[in-house]
Write the structure tokens for this entry.
Amino acid sequence: MVSERSDGHIPLAVKILIAGGFGVGKTTLVSAVSEIRPLQTEEVLTNAGVGIDDVGGVEGKRTTTVAMDFGRISISDDIVLYLFGTPGQDRFWFLWDELALGALGAVVLADTRRLTDCFPSVDYFEGRGTPFLVAVNCFDGVQKHSAEAIAKALDLDPEVPVVLCDARDRRSVKDVLIALVEHVMTLKHVPA
Ligand SMILES: Nc1nc2c(ncn2[C@@H]2O[C@H](COP(=O)(O)OP(=O)(O)OP(=O)(O)O)[C@@H](O)[C@H]2O)c(=O)[nH]1
Ligand SMILES: [Mg+2]
């Protein structure tokens, strides 16, 4: 809920989606930046998911999001972002259309070790015409690639921003969200 301040000023509430492949750090990102205790819908990965859930590359992962993550962050006095993290696994695709309703923009989180996992999210937002950027979550010990190289590998339209981030770091995540809002404003020609 957007709360009115004592001076009567009500900030603009904006819905943002945090998408990307399985285990790429979406829940981590929402938790790192949220000012309220984030809502999480994590369930333990069990043997029932063997052969269904692709844990290749994230073998240490113990839980997965089964509905959504939810958090809130004020990026200025005037704008409050409501963050909706999507479930990463294919079997939860049926939730996406509901989650995407009314979203102003999206962050597609990517892991360069499994870059192709973000293709479905990129295709989805391109198809819907939802403005998005690609944020590369730089995991420890993983070879760094330039934003240009990643944009080329993903064959993105030239106007789609690519930024590098650390999903565990509040400042870094906030910078990603500000970059997204600026991108949306550019596309919609909203004066800053
Ligand atoms: N080293 C490192 N580990 C990370 C980073 N981001 C996430 N992790 C770890 O990677 C694992 C997956 O993170 P999650 O945030 O659950 O990923 P997710 O995208 O929400 O996963 P699903 O909801 O199952 O698709 C967790 O064990 C995190 O602690 C990061 O930037 N660096
Ligand atoms: Mg998650």
User: Anything to note?
Assistant: DSSP finds five helices and eight strands in the chain.
